[in-house]
Amino acid sequence: MAYKSIFKPGLFKDDVALVTGGGTGIGRCIAHELASLGATVIIAGRKIEKLQSTAQEMRNAGYKVDITQLDIRNLDEIKKSLNYIISKHGKLTCLVNNAGGQFAAPASEISPNGWKTVIDLNLNGTWMMCWAAYHAWMGEHGGRIVNITAAARNGIPFMAHTAAARAGIMNLTKTLCVEWAPHGIRINSLAPGTIVGSGMTRYPISVQQTAADNHWMNPSGRYGTEAEVSSAVVYLLSPGAAYINGITVRMDGGRDLSKTSFQRESKIPIYDGGLSVETNELFMKLWGDYKQIGKSKL
Ligand SMILES: CCCCC/C=C/C(=O)SCCNC(=O)CCNC(=O)[C@H](O)C(C)(C)COP(=O)(O)OP(=O)(O)OC[C@H]1O[C@@H](n2cnc3c(N)ncnc32)[C@H](O)[C@@H]1OP(=O)(O)O
Ligand SMILES: NC(=O)C1=CN([C@@H]2O[C@H](COP(=O)(O)OP(=O)(O)OC[C@H]3O[C@@H](n4cnc5c(N)ncnc54)[C@H](OP(=O)(O)O)[C@@H]3O)[C@@H](O)[C@H]2O)C=CC1
């Protein structure tokens, strides 16, 4: 079935686009949308069955699609895939660094290797993809890159590793924008909040349940869709975004602006400078143990 994009048919007819993690979830959706707009889309990932199945459904829709198997943590595999793309399809005009992931754990329980694994996947993997695309094609011919990160501006509780990695990508995006603009490369990032789809189902059911229960904390009152992420990516890759360079688009329904706290009771000691405070019972409660001291001072 043809993808129902809001963009003009044929918009990407001259493009060859590589979407990492394109076999599932958000990447699959982006691959469908770009291909529906005329691009030749190459989807990449580690598991060949997922790539083959998505490629088949895209072919059934009449799209131009190819696959390449790679682990974005392995530079040799990345180079091999890019060589294949350039030799078979003649160019690489768009790169979507979508592959990534993490596990949920309190920061204190992340082992050194657990930390390294997530940094290698998200930060180093994205960096190596950008670096290799530059050397394989874009440094000489230009191109457009979108990095999928995660809404990490205020950190992500229980995902300290990925929050740090994604913040690194957002900063990398700024540096590469400045260094690579003279080469005709435009690079931006997109930071989704919680998106309903295959990604969330990979977590233990308790994590999924907590996420589902907390949907009301989002000012939009719901989570996002893969198609909503995809249309923003497609816009950033399109000629209409020609003057957008080096930014990160936050796409989380406003969650980042909501201050709803994970913490119900404060255990952080209070500093008062020795002065009494004019307040009432209602606000004293918010200071937890300090309530007693506060009362005696008032
Ligand atoms: C703004 C909010 C956004 C939040 C919502 C985000 C949603 C998404 O991103 S959707 C997700 C996309 N998909 C995924 O995240 C995939 C799920 N994750 C994984 O597949 C894996 O966790 C991995 C890719 C991140 C790592 O896999 P792998 O390379 O196979 O690593 P190992 O299993 O060998 O483990 C390495 C290292 O990490 C420790 N570890 C793994 N899982 C956990 C865990 N649940 N808790 C604690 N530690 C874990 C593991 O023990 C190893 O460390 P050592 O034991 O010290 O060797
Ligand atoms: N869903 C959500 O709520 C959010 C998702 N994100 C991010 O969006 C991106 C897509 O997630 P989503 O579609 O939801 O989840 P999925 O788990 O469906 O997608 C992750 C994709 O990345 C690929 N991948 C993982 N590791 C590697 C690797 N080492 N090398 C190559 N490919 C790899 C996987 O394929 P394979 O296993 O075959 O390699 C898979 O296709 C991820 O970076 C995710 O962290 C960010 C914020 C929120």
Bound molecules: ligand LGGBLMCM, NADPH dihydro-nicotinamide-adenine-dinucleotide phosphate
**Category from helices, strands and their pairing:** alpha/beta
How many domains is the backbone divided into?
A: 2
Span from first to last CA? 70 Å
Sequence of strands across the biggest β-sheet: 3-2-1-4-5-6-9
> Helical segment tally?
9
Mean pLDDT: 92
User: What's the SSE pattern?
Assistant: EHEHEHEHEHEEHEHEHH
For the biggest sheet, the summary is: 7 strands, parallel
CATH homologous superfamily of the largest domain, by name?
NAD(P)-binding Rossmann-like Domain
Spatial extent as radius of gyration: 22 Å
Name the CATH architecture of the largest domain. 3-Layer(aba) Sandwich
Number of strands: 9
Task: Bin the helical content.
Answer: 40-55%
Shape: elongated
* Strand residues, percent: 5-15%
CATH fold-level name of the largest domain: Rossmann fold
Low-confidence stretches: 290-298
**CATH class category label of the largest domain:** Alpha Beta
Family: Belongs to the short-chain dehydrogenases/reductases (SDR) family.
Function: Participates in chain elongation of fatty acids. Catalyzes the reduction of trans-2-enoyl-CoAs of varying chain lengths from 6:1 to 16:1, having maximum activity with 10:1 CoA. Has no 2,4-dienoyl-CoA reductase activity.
EC number: 1.3.1.38
Pathway: Lipid metabolism
